[in-house]
Specification:
alpha/beta; OB fold (Dihydrolipoamide Acetyltransferase, E2P); 713 residues; binds magnesium ion; binds adenosine-5'-diphosphate; seven-stranded mixed beta sheet; 25 helices
Amino acid sequence: MDKVALSLVSPLSAVPEIGPKRLEKLSGMGFRTVLDLLYYFPFRYEDRRAAKRISQLVPGIPAGFVAKVRNIRKKEIRSVRVPLVEADLEDGTGTIRAVWFGQEYLLKTLPQDSVAFFFGKPEISDFDGRLSLRSPVTEKMDPERKSQKSFHINRIVPVYHEGQGLGTAFFRKTIGTILASLWGLDFDPVPAQIVSLSGLPAWFPSMVELHFPKDLPSPDNPDSLLDPRYSPRRRFIFEELFFLEFLMGHKKKEIQSVVRPSDYQISEDSLGRFQSILPFSLTSAQTRVMGEILSDLSRPVPMNRLLLGDVGSGKTVVAAWGIFLAAQSGFQSAFMAPTEILALQHHSSLSALLGPLGIRVALMTQAVRGGERRKLMESVYHGTVDLVVGTHALIQEALSFRSLRFVVVDEQHKFGVEQRRSLIQKGDVPDVLVMTATPIPRSLALSYFGDLDLSVLDERPPGRKPVTTTIVPFHSSERFWDDCIRPVIERGEQAFVVYPLIEEGETSEIRDANSMHAALSEKWPEFRVGLLTGRMNSEEKEAVMQSFKEGKTDLLVATTVIEVGVDIPNATAMVVENAERFGLAQLHQLRGRIGRGDLSGSFFLIPGRSASPDALERLEILVHCEDGFLVSEEDLKTRGPGEFLGTRQSGLPTFRVANLVRDQDLLIEARKRASDFLEPQLAEHVSHTWEWTTLMNFIRNRFPEVEEWLLVR
Ligand code: ADP
Ligand code: MG
């Protein structure tokens, strides 16, 4: 092997294995330096310590060996549809035949006389009694470099995901070479105090162990190397979470370093005045969160608060409190909701609530046009409007405020980072309250939204009627409509019917809103059946909702446009077809649309004909569990955080080894360490021994997406 002198910051071009082509591919994967590549960890391992010679192979016992490829050829056999590739493998002690099905590319990748590693279960062929292998795992080796052999066989070997056409053997060899040339390196990106406080094993030996483990934590089980408790792995999980929390905490400090006068005019009787206009008394959770907001607004740093609260927990009134405080201090507020329907609803309830206090409330949606829109923009600009409620129409460039100071983003997960940011930038470092009814488990929320302070509404207003959840088997769904839905409408109540699709899709397995609207209208000519989908324009939607609200429609067929916020007390039943197509948290949201008045509600889930037993079992959770936080914990377990949080939450950092759900204990520890470390006295102490910017760069490199992903500003 060439003698190479590499350091962690060496560009990958300095590594002998890497020529211009590979360099380009690696840079396409985001790798620039030696250090970047070292963090490309294997996703599994193979125990190849007992590599055999061909003469030692025993029928029925899986084994690996290195051999030369002879007579590789294509074979067409009439009884078998796919072409076969056959070869004789030879190592000087014997030969064995290998057969692959439908892998014609092997003719190219394993030419005559090439040397490769093979792994499989030898069997005696029924056909001619010879020892043979069916579709063995195959990995080509480069015959010119004898020494790399040791990276690929006679040891526990790492297996890497292929990337840009670069295969596992390449990564193994290259990373192996790099580690060999760095041998004995004394480096740790985690500050020394943290290493010792958390008892972390040293960086370099842990790195070596993750790529080229010497032994298995539990015998005969290579997967035990993937166990988060395996100490080298645990070290990197901690490291990853620590960096994340550190970056979040740092960002939060940065945001909070903006000091501006606390010029809200808050008086002793503010709360009393606000309470006097409410038609109900506040829950203690509401009172607590309002207190948190009040104390934020009394400090000379901007508020950045996330309000988590299950559907129906009463978040709107909490937001109204902030708006009220802003207005009484002469500041404007903006309240952004994800749909027209919701914006309308908030506009009407906030006007009713705050109007009597002299707060001037306006509505801004796509439907506000022409002269009306111009007038509205003028009032906002001149400050003759105190609160603008709206959809993303609020973030249009032309809308500017005189003194926007309080920003509310409702159902924040429905907005992209850029949309939230655009609204916030309309104010001069405004106070921000983002709200979500997706009840994210607390520890996940703390890290995912680490740049925010967290408030939780964990109590429901009293007097809510229960909603019963029933799973209706697909085969009895015909009778179901007459047995369960007809009586609801005959009682004068209303029902939603929700479908996963708007139009008929490729498969008739999944029902859609359009055709079911037609089918239900035909089935029940005596009832008034409405249709609401995301594809309608805002006037159409508004008209449909209005008619349903006024009781002029009995049954509303819809897609998930009604998922968030809609409040119609007389709607007491909801049917969700193809329920297995929805996430649990989403179904829980939908369920929150009913049982909002004095009447109890019924929630019916009809799984599709071919829903899996697993899916049915998952739905069962909703039958027994009314608590949104528990529902979402379950959802997280089955779906993982990325999918759970949805694609709109783009930029969820890609973890190499950590898993926010599985590693919650480490997350909590990492969070604590990071926040201690960010205390000024410690940071000062550290700056002597350690370069702050080096750390920041290192971390930013590891999480390039974090800037994008921070929730505000
Ligand atoms: P969400 O948290 O889902 O946004 P809302 O703010 O829409 O909930 O509140 C749901 C309903 O509960 C509204 O009709 C609201 O007026 C009512 N509400 C809110 N707080 C209370 C309370 N403390 N007591 C009784 N009703 C309340
Ligand atoms: Mg709401």
